[in-house]
Write a structure and sequence with these properties.
- It is built from 7 helices and 5 strands.
- It is α/β, with parallel strands linked by helices.
- Strand 4, helix 4 and strand 5 form a beta-alpha-beta unit.
- It is elongated, with a radius of gyration of 25 Å.
- The protein starts with a strand and ends with a helix.
Length: 189
């Protein structure tokens, strides 16, 4: 069950949203009335999605969203009574995945929540792929650098240098990237 936090200063609207979400089998882990409380509750509850009003006392939803986005990778669905382009443009920041104009109906809220959660899952998968690709590239660079050092030191071919790295990796039962790092440290010092 996905955990959702609702941030809305109008208590009746907040309760309506909570009831809509609960009736759709979402786990509402927190329902707070301002941006400061949202930041605290996010740290404590780590929701999967935050539904946040823009206009609130103390700390508005956009400022709270910026603070939350810097610390946590949690998607935020913005609520607003305003559909003017200035509010929409201001809401175009990281982790804001949607914008709903009040008054909110269940037929409007639930699809927006589903899409926000789905897009968040896709973004997280893409971030993992990018991280993995970056790591593979860095590992490949290490291996190439170690091969170059071995080729230079022993005056052997690229294939022979790679075979030496591979044999060291298999003989010592450690990843070839770690062997490459050790070779680089030994041959460059």
């Amino acid at each position: 069950m996905k955990k959702i936090m609702v941030v809305e200063d109008e208590s009746i609207v907040r309760l309506d949203i909570v009831e809509m979400l609960k009736s759709a089998n979402y786990d509402v882990v927190s329902a707070v009335s301002n941006g400061e409380k949202a930041i605290e509750a996010t740290a404590e509850r780590m929701p999967d999605l935050i539904i946040m009003d823009i206009k609130m006392p103390k700390l508005n939803g956009l400022k709270a969203s910026k603070i939350i986005s810097k610390k946590y990778d949690i998607p935020i669905l913005i609520l607003s009574a305003y559909s003017q382009s200035e509010f929409v443009n201001e809401a175009k920041q990281s982790n804001i995945v949607g914008y709903i104009v009040k008054p909110i109906a269940e037929a409007q809220l639930l699809p927006a929540v589903e899409i926000a959660l789905s897009q968040s899952n896709r973004m997280n998968a893409l971030k993992q792929e990018v991280t993995q690709s970056y790591k593979q590239i860095e590992n490949r660079k290490l291996i190439e650098r170690a091969k170059g050092l071995i080729m230079q030191r022993l005056s052997i071919s690229e294939e022979a240098a790679y075979q030496r790295l591979r044999k060291l990796s298999m003989d010592n039962q450690i990843e070839i990237e770690k062997v490459a790092m050790k070779v680089i440290k030994q041959l460059e010092s």
